[in-house]
């Protein structure tokens, strides 16, 4: 018996050792799974979704800058050649006619200028704005482009030119739009709860409380006093006042920072929050980037008549990049406020419809009772016949 026990002991020890080793090897795997589960849970929260959409927009802006700045734009050379040809033809016309026939000179020069305008208009229609790809795809502009893509506003003031940029835009929108919808729903739910709590608290503090009615309700054992707070809903006028105040704040902010008029600033806020996005006004276009400073420096070197104070003025305002972050937050928070108003108005509409349904039932019941009271119950005549 002792020998058998001694022979089986190493096998038992081997099984225990393998079990311990497998358990030890599974512990890091369980930790990784737990960390991944916690990370996914956090990213599904409101803070996680907000941080994720900001990170997604920043990564997209950097990617678009890296892709689109490699685009070689030959349109500037075409414009220069057209300008030179136009001026040369005007000089030839002037030299040939020599102001002998003014009417003929005017007609010839008008024809040349009209042809030049048509050519320049066609080039501008194709996307030429007189700036290099490095100046167009600055970080502020790229960030606003990413925001317009994922929020489905689509300003259209700048578009990718390279095939890689167009393909990346499709992939970026495919994953960014569902992420924005998730942010829209979560942020609207959170803001709706917060605003509802704030409105109910202010309503209870300002309303005239009828203590006699509360005492009677408590003495009778009814829960009317306790359910009074649940019946308070946020009216649509409060939501509209919040949106109006937010739009006016953005109007003042963009008018001061972007040097727009108050009408244009208000027009931009309304079209952006309504997701119309014409693209004629886009924040960040007035911000000066390092590429603009380099272009002004190069112009100063090549052109003697250039203003030497232009470079210093541009360098003085290159620290305005923080304004773009506030513009970015303003747009995201505005979308969240729209989602909040949507949820609150939907709740009010559902409550109003329920009240209208109950009022309609009461009206029909009251009408039936009045009709029966005036005309009598028809069943009484049958009862008298039988009995």
From TrEMBL:
It is found in: Membrane. Residues 1-11 have a biased composition (Polar residues). Keywords: Ion channel, Ion transport, Membrane, Transmembrane, Transmembrane helix, Transport. It is a multi-pass membrane protein. Gene3D superfamilies: 1.10.287.70. The chain crosses the membrane at residues 39-65, 136-158, 170-192, 238-257, 324-345. Residues 1-22 are annotated as: Disordered. Its main location: membrane. InterPro entries: 2pore_dom_K_chnl, K_chnl_dom. Residues 121-192, 242-284 form the Potassium channel domain. GO terms for biological process: stabilization of membrane potential. One of its GO terms (molecular function) is outward rectifier potassium channel activity. Belongs to the two pore domain potassium channel (TC 1.A.1.8) family. This is Potassium channel domain-containing protein. It comes from Drosophila mojavensis (Fruit fly).
């Amino acid at each position: 018996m002792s020998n058998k026990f001694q022979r089986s002991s190493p096998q038992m020890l081997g099984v225990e050792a393998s079990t311990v080793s497998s358990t030890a090897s599974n512990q890091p795997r369980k930790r990784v799974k737990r960390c991944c589960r916690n990370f996914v849970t956090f990213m599904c929260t409101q803070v996680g979704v907000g941080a994720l959409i900001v990170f997604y927009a920043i990564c997209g802006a950097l990617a678009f800058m890296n892709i689109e700045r490699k685009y070689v734009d030959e349109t500037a050379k075409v414009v220069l050649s057209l300008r030179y040809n136009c001026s040369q033809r005007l000089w030839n016309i002037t030299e040939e006619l020599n102001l002998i026939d003014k009417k003929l000179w005017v007609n010839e020069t008008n024809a040349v200028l009209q042809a030049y305008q048509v050519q320049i208009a066609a080039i501008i229609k194709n996307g030429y704005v007189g700036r290099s790809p490095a100046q167009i795809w600055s970080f502020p502009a790229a960030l606003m482009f990413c925001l317009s893509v994922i929020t489905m506003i689509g300003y259209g003031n700048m578009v990718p030119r390279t095939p890689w940029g167009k393909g990346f835009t499709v992939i970026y929108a495919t994953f960014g739009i569902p992420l924005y919808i998730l942010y829209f729903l979560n942020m609207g739910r959170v803001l709706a709860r917060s605003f509802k709590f704030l409105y109910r608290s202010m309503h209870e503090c300002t309303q005239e409380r009828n203590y006699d009615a509360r005492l009677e309700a408590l003495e009778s054992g009814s829960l009317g006093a306790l359910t009074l707070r649940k019946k308070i809903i946020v009216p649509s006028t409060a939501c509209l006042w919040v949106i109006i105040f937010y739009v006016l704040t953005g109007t003042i902010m963009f008018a001061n920072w972007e040097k727009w008029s108050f009408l244009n600033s208000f027009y931009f806020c309304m079209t952006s929050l309504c997701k119309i996005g014409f693209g004629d006004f886009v924040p960040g276009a007035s911000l000066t980037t390092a590429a603009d400073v380099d272009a002004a420096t190069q112009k100063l070197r090549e052109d003697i008549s250039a203003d030497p104070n232009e470079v210093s003025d541009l360098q003085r305002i290159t620290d305005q990049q923080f304004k773009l972050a506030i513009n970015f937050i303003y747009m995201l928070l505005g979308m969240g406020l729209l989602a909040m108003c949507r949820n609150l108005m939907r709740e009010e509409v559902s409550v109003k419809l329920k009240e209208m349904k109950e009022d309609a039932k009461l009206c029909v019941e009251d009408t039936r009772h009045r009709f029966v009271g005036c005309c009598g119950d028809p069943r009484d005549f049958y009862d008298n016949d039988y009995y």
